[in-house]
Amino acid sequence: MAESDSSPIAEFFQDRGVLITGATGFMGKVLVEKLLCCCSGVKTIYLLLRSKGGRNSRMRLEELLNAEIFRNIRKKQPHLLSKLVPVHGDIILPGFGLRPSDMTLIANEVSVVFHSAATVKFDEPLKRSVEMNIIGTRRLVEVCHKMPLLVALIHVSTAYCNCDRDEVDEIVYPPPANPQKVIDALEWMDEDLVALITPKLLGNRPNTYTYTKALAENILVEECGSLPVAIIRPSIVTAAWKDPLPGWIDNFNGPSGLIVATGKGVLRSMLCQPCGTADLIPVDVVINLVISVAWYTATKRPNNIMVYHCTSGSQNRLTWGELESLIFPLVYAHPSKEVLRYPGGSFKSNRLRNEISVFFNHQVPAQILDFMARILGRKPNLGLERMVQLYSRLNRAVSCLEFFTTHEWTFHNSNAETLYEQLVGKDKKVKF
C-alpha cells in the first residue's frame, strides 16, 4: 500500500475494543460516527448509557442511531452498526453501577476509552455539576484501573477551565480548590446553602461548568497513577465543517442558538467586544483531534499527561464583529420559516447601550405582544402569550455567554500542532 493511502490511525483501531461515555451528546455522536466510518476495523464500541425517561440503554441506542448523521451508515454500511454495544450504567455510580458480567466484559475487551460525558450547562446547580464532571471522572478512573489492556484514556475537557487566566498553556494548572474537600462539603449542604456559597467558590470563573472541569482535570492527575491519560481542551464547539454532514448540529447551545434567534428576529442586541476573538471550532475538527490523540498516546507513550488545545484563535482568528458581519447576510439570504420580526439589531460593546437596547427591543415588544394576545382572547401558554417567557429564557442564555463574548484569551496549542506533524497518508488529509 502506498504511503499516501495508508492510515496508521485506522490500523491502530483494527480489532480493538473501545468504550465511550457521553455517546448521546453532541460530540459523542460525531465520535461514534467517525470511528465507524474511518476506523471501520474496530472490533466493538461499547457505549455507556443510563436509563432515561423510561427508556433503557437499548432503546436509547436505537434513538441514537436514528440521528441524521448515521443516515449514510444505515443505508450503505448497516453492518457496521452491529459493532455498537450498549452497556447499562451511570457515570456517577461506583463502578458505573455495572453488572459484574459487564464489568468483566469491559475489563477484558477495552483498550481505548473516550470520556466525553459531562454536564455542559453553564447554569447547572453546583451539586449536579460536581456529580457529573468531578465524581463522574473519578468513577471513570476507578474503572480504568481495572482494564489491563488499556493503552489510551482520552478525557474531553474545555479550554475555558482556566478562564481565570489571560494566557493558557497546554498544562494542568493547580485547581481552584481541593476536589475532595468540595465533594465532602456539598454532601451535607442543602440546595439553598450551596446556591448561597457558589459565587464564593467560583471566584473568577463565570459558571459551575468551567469550575468543575478544572477540578476534574486535577482528579485525573492525582488519581490516574500509571494510566495512559491525555486531555483535550476544545474552545467553543460549533456545527460540523465537513463531516459527518456540513453544518450539522443537534443543539442550540452557544453561538448556534444566537444565530437561530437572530434569524427569527428575536435576538436584537447582545453585549460583546467586536474586536475580541470568537474562538469557534467545528465539532469534526475536535473529534479528529480526539481520535488522533488516542492513537498518539497509545503508540508514542508520553511520559506525562499531555494536554491538547483544540482552538482556532491563534491560527484562524475570527472576531465577534466579523461574525456579526457574516451572520446577517446569511439570515437574509436563507430566511427562517418561523420569523417573528424582520432580523435586525447589532452587537453592543457598551453595557448601558446594550441594556437600553434590550429593554426597547426585547422587553417592550414582548409585553406588547402578550398584552395584545390577552386582548384578543388567546388562551394561556398558546401563541404569543409566551413572549415574555421566551425573552426571559433568551436573556438568561445570552447572559451565560456574556463572559465569553466580553473577554479574550490566548490558548497556546504547540502540542496539537506537533501531533498534526506526526500524521501521514490519509490521516494527514483528514487531519484525522
From TrEMBL:
<keyword id="KW-0560">Oxidoreductase</keyword>
<comment type="function">
    <text>Catalyzes the reduction of fatty acyl-CoA to fatty alcohols.</text>
</comment>
<dbReference type="InterPro" id="IPR033640">
    <property type="entry name" value="FAR_C"/>
</dbReference>
<keyword id="KW-0443">Lipid metabolism</keyword>
<keyword id="KW-0444">Lipid biosynthesis</keyword>
<dbReference type="Pfam" id="PF07993">
    <property type="entry name" value="NAD_binding_4"/>
</dbReference>
<dbReference type="InterPro" id="IPR026055">
    <property type="entry name" value="FAR"/>
</dbReference>
<dbReference type="InterPro" id="IPR036291">
    <property type="entry name" value="NAD(P)-bd_dom_sf"/>
</dbReference>
<feature type="domain" description="Thioester reductase (TE)">
    <location>
        <begin position="20"/>
        <end position="289"/>
    </location>
</feature>
<keyword id="KW-0521">NADP</keyword>
<feature type="domain" description="Fatty acyl-CoA reductase C-terminal">
    <location>
        <begin position="362"/>
        <end position="429"/>
    </location>
</feature>
<protein>
    <recommendedName>
        <fullName>Fatty acyl-CoA reductase</fullName>
        <ecNumber>1.2.1.84</ecNumber>
    </recommendedName>
</protein>
<comment type="similarity">
    <text>Belongs to the fatty acyl-CoA reductase family.</text>
</comment>
<dbReference type="InterPro" id="IPR013120">
    <property type="entry name" value="FAR_NAD-bd"/>
</dbReference>
<dbReference type="Pfam" id="PF03015">
    <property type="entry name" value="Sterile"/>
</dbReference>
